[in-house]
């Protein structure tokens, strides 16, 4: 039986990795959503490590930067975020937590869709921000998601959550 030599486009491969790091199926460990599975508003608001951010703050931070990457890829010049947009304050109410989770999921879905629409030729196009290309933005979001998923797992353990 012949082996297929058809390879997915680079953008399709990056979109797949974005999805794995966010929703699951990544080899490194829990994705963002897997790390958040079972987190309620009370746990999201806990600060088990005094100087560390809460899970809720991390979710809002992730949402902001996933959206910034999408907007940069779409052509908007965003160099940085003000502190209050980079690390928004998170409340401890269940409704606010549900909204934060929905916004995170929506931001990811919009970036994932934008990545799927890209042609490989656009990956080396310049964008404003810390990663100078579209490819850099997508890889940066992947790295950022994995980093913060790990933080969420550690915060859960520090808070006494056995999951």
Overview of the structural elements:
By secondary structure, the chain is mainly alpha-helical. It has 7 helices and no strands. Helix 1 (10-23) runs antiparallel to helix 6 (94-117) and helix 4 (55-73) runs parallel beside helix 6. The longest helix is centred in the C-terminal third of the chain and has 25 residues, at 134-158. It is globular, with a radius of gyration of 17 Å. The model has no long low-confidence stretch (mean pLDDT 93).
Structural topology:
Elements: H1 10-23, H2 32-36, H3 41-45, H4 55-73, H5 83-86, H6 94-117, H7 134-158
Helix pairs in contact: 1-6, 1-7, 4-6, 4-7
Brief summary:
The protein has 7 helices and no strands.
Q: Low-confidence spans: pLDDT under 50, at least 5 residues?
A: none
Helix content: 55-70%
Q: Counting H and I runs of at least 4 residues, what is the number of helices? A: 7
Mean pLDDT across every amino acid position: 93
User: Could you give the count of β-strands?
Assistant: 0
Q: Give the helices and strands as they follow along the chain.
A: HHHHHHH
Overall shape: it is: globular
Give the oligomer, counting copies of the same chain as homo and different chains as hetero. single chain
* Strand coverage percent: under 5%
- Biggest sheet character: none
Global Rg:
17 Å
Q: Give the end-to-end Cα distance, rounded to a whole number of Å.
A: 44 Å
Structural class: mainly alpha
């Amino acid at each position: 039986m012949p082996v297929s030599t058809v390879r997915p486009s680079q953008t399709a491969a990056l979109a797949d990795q974005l999805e794995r790091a966010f929703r699951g199926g990544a080899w490194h460990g829990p994705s963002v959503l897997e790390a958040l599975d079972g987190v309620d508003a009370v746990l999201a608001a806990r600060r088990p490590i005094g100087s560390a951010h809460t899970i809720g703050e991390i979710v809002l931070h992730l949402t902001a930067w996933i959206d910034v990457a999408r907007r940069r890829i779409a052509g908007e010049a965003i160099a940085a975020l003000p502190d209050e947009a980079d690390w928004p304050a998170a409340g401890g109410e269940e409704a606010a937590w549900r909204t934060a989770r929905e916004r995170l999921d929506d931001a990811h879905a919009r970036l994932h869709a934008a990545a799927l629409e890209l042609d490989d030729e656009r990956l080396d196009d310049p964008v404003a921000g810390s990663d100078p290309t579209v490819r850099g933005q997508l890889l940066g979001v992947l790295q950022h998601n994995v980093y913060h998923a790990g933080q969420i797992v550690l915060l859960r353990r520090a808070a006494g959550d056995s999951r």
